[in-house]
Amino acid sequence: MTKLLPFIQHQCKWPVWRMEIDELSNIIFLEVRNGADKLVSFTSIGLDNGMVNFDGLTTPERWLTGIETAFDGVFVLHNYQSEKGPAHKGLTAIDGHTGKTLWSNYNLAFDYLSVNGPVVYNTQIQPKKLFLADIKTGETVRNYQPIIDEVLNNRILSPQVLPVQAFKSLPDGVEAYGNTVDYLEHNNFRIVSLHTFLDGQLKQVLYIFDDEGDTVYHDLLQTDIQKLQPEAFVVHNNKLIYLKNRSVLIVLNLQNTVL
C-alpha cells in the first residue's frame, strides 16, 4: 500500500473565498479575503509544477473586487457596484504568471466563458449585445456566434452526496453526522468527505481509499464548525483539490498511481 502525500500545500494569509482554474494553462487562482479589515488579495499557482507565480497580489480596489473568470493564462476581475449588492461592474485582466495588469474596461461586463474566450457585453448599450473578447487585450474580436462560441467545459469533477448506508468502508469508530457523505471515484481511488463528531466537536474529515479498501490518505478539514459545510473537494485533470481550515490549499496527484 502506497500512501499519498500532498503535491501542493500552500498557506494563505486569509480565508479563500473563491478558486478558479484556467483550463488552458492549468493555473489555479485564489481569491483571499480579510473581512475584518476589508482587504482582498489574489494568488496564482501552477497545478502542473506546483510553482507559486505570485501570492498576496492586491489591486487599487482593495475590497469591492473579485475573480470573474480565467482563460489562457489570464484571470479577469470584476468590481462590485456597491458593498451591499452582488451586481458586478467593469472588468480588469491580470497576467496569471506575472501579476501584471493587462487591461481594464469599466463599461464591459462578463456573460460567460466560451471555448474561444470570454463573451462580454457593453453595459451602456441596450438591448444587451454579446461580443467575443480577446482576453489578452480586452478588445472585442467579433459579434458572439452561438454555434462556435459554445460554453467551455471546465472538466471539474465534483462529489455526489450519498446516504451513509451506501458506503460501508468508513474507518472503525467514524460515524457520519447527518447520515450523508460526499463521494467520488477517480482512477483506482474512492474519495470521501463527511462530518463527524470528534472530541465532542463537529468536524469535517477527508478519506481516500484504494481499491482494496485501505486508507491511503486522510485529513482533518475543519474543526469546531456549527453547521454542515458544502462539498469539500473537487478533482481536476487527475488532481484532488481541497481547502484545509479555509486557508490552506492542498493538491494531491491522483494520476496513474498503481497501488
Tell me the structural class.
mainly beta
Mean pLDDT: 92
Question: What proportion strand?
Answer: over 45%
Which strand order spans the largest sheet, edge to edge or round the barrel? 1-22-21-20-14
Beta-strand segment tally: 22
Q: SSE order in H/E notation?
A: EEEEEEEEEEEEEEEEEEEEEE
Quick one: biggest sheet?
5 strands, antiparallel
- Low-confidence parts: none
Q: State the share of residues found in helices, binned by percent.
A: under 10%
Based on the structure, what is the oligomeric state of the protein chains?
single chain
The gyration radius over C-alpha positions equals: 20 Å
- Looking at the structure, what is the overall shape? elongated
Distance between the termini: 6 Å
Work out the helix count.
0
Write a structural description.
It is a single chain. The chain is mainly β. Helices cover 0% and strands 53% of the residues. The chain contains no helices and 22 strands. The strands form five sheets. Strands 1-22-21-20-14 form a five-stranded antiparallel β-sheet, with no helix packed on it. The protein has a five-stranded antiparallel β-sheet with strand order 15-16-17-18-19, with no helix packed on it. Strands 2-3-4-5 form a four-stranded antiparallel β-sheet, with no helix packed on it. The protein is elongated and about 60 Å long. The termini are close together. The model has no long low-confidence stretch (mean pLDDT 92).
